[in-house]
Specification:
Strand content: 15-25%
Oligomer: single chain
CATH superfamily of the largest domain: DnaJ domain
Structural class: alpha+beta
Largest sheet: 4 strands, mixed
CATH topology of the largest domain: Helix Hairpins
CATH architecture of the largest domain: Orthogonal Bundle
Number of helices: 9
Radius of gyration: 38 Å
Strand order of the largest sheet: 10-11-15-14
Order of helices and strands: HHHHHEHEEEEEEEEEEHEEEEHH
Length: 380
């Protein structure tokens, strides 16, 4: 065992917490890993040193011994110590060391955590696209989705063996689904070839599912889509995906929402936008309009002299927010239709109005934005 200062090797203080020591180790292990420094003997030696240091400091009991008597407390024959020599140190050091080393290896090589000792695994998720009308998306709708999915095999209760009984623990991996292979000075976990990573051996395969533990079944899933969804949203239906392996939990069903446009309504966030045109007389004298909504129509009183582009807002008459459950507003944009064809009598009447309003039609002195000017400009 090295007599160097393990704290200095990891670059931490003697009062460092367990999390700080682990973080420092992972950073240095990634930095000096031999596969990142091929042929660099100095990096290889440093990698060995930081593993040696963490094997001690990462274990509370060994750290206590080290803080008391130093590295010599870990020579052969010392109570609470361990034999020197890096190869084989993995797994013999404390559990903290093994966990941290596995994390580094997983991060470096992109390895998964491997099969669990029981072989149980969550089922795969299912993704489907759902096309909704504008009204169904805004108000919510119960829909039915047809799909084929893996479900647990009833005759074998999902374990893949005949009558659910012909299963033994894999002797090669002791039921873990993984084996450890030592290569040089570090250990790599691999999937057990004897059992395929399942941790068990089936002597008599279930004829119903051919040992898979799952069978394909056509299902129709009926669920309610919440009010207020919009294009791009994803609705999760828990537990309606594929069944898990060996009794593991089922995956989820995800629905990607696509909403069709509407010929009248426009959605702006949670607001429902409607555009309505007023005739010239309605804009001048006022009126009451029946405004379409997603429910009963809304009677809107239009004041005399309403200008083009006027926006009216009705609180709480818009679209529900699926997250907050709050309601948006009904937004009404009012436009004024200017007639494009007038009879001689209508023209004369407008010219008379212009004279009374001080907007002579041919003087060119009419104020900007006057109603008569707007009408007259159509014919100039």
């Amino acid at each position: 065992m090295s007599s160097r200062d393990f704290y200095s090797i990891l670059g931490v203080s003697r009062s460092a917490s367990a999390d700080e020591i682990k973080k420092a180790y992972r950073k240095l292990a990634m930095q000096y890993h031999p596969d990142r420094n091929p042929g660099d003997k100095a990096a290889e030696a440093q990698f060995k040193s930081i593993n040696e240091a963490y094997e001690v400091l990462g274990d509370p009991k060994k750290r206590q011994v080290y803080d008391t008597v130093g590295a010599q407390g870990f020579s052969e024959g010392v109570e609470g110590g361990f034999s020197s020599g890096f190869p084989g140190g993995f797994g013999r050091g404390g559990g903290n060391f093994g966990d941290a080393f596995s994390e580094v290896m997983n991060e470096f090589f992109g390895m998964g955590s491997g099969a669990s000792s029981s072989g149980r695994a969550q089922g795969e998720h299912i993704l489907r696209q759902v096309d909704l009308s504008f009204e169904d998306a805004a108000l919510g709708k119960e829909i039915s989705i047809k799909l084929a999915r893996w479900e647990s095999c009833s005759p074998c209760s999902g374990n893949g063996s005949k009558n659910g009984k012909s299963v033994t623990v894999c002797s090669n991996c002791k039921g873990t689904g993984l084996i450890r292979v030592q290569q040089g000075f570090f250990v790599i976990q691999k999937t057990c070839g004897a059992c395929g990573g399942e941790g068990r051996i089936i002597s008599e395969i279930c004829p119903a599912c051919s040992g898979k533990g799952r069978i394909s079944v056509d299902r129709t899933i009926t669920r309610s889509i919440p009010a207020g969804v919009t294009t791009g949203m994803r609705v999760r239906i828990p537990g309606e995906g594929h069944a898990g392996l060996q009794g593991g939990p089922s995956g989820d069903l995800y629905l990607d929402v696509s909403v069709k446009p509407h010929p009248v309504f426009i959605r702006d966030g949670d607001d429902l936008v409607v555009e309505r045109n007023l005739t010239l007389m309605q804009a001048i004298f006022g009126t009451t309009l029946e405004i379409p909504t997603l429910g009963a129509g809304y009677p809107l009183k239009v004041d005399p002299g309403t200008q083009p582009g006027t926006v009216r807002r009705v609180r709480g008459k818009g679209i529900a927010n699926p997250a907050t459950k709050g309601m948006g507003d009904l937004v009404i944009r009012l436009n004024v239709e200017i007639p494009t064809r007038l009879t001689r009598e209508q023209k004369e009447a407008l010219e008379r109005y212009g004279e009374l309003a001080g907007e002579a039609p041919h003087s060119g002195s009419a104020p900007d934005g006057g109603l008569f000017s707007k009408v007259k400009s159509i014919f100039d």
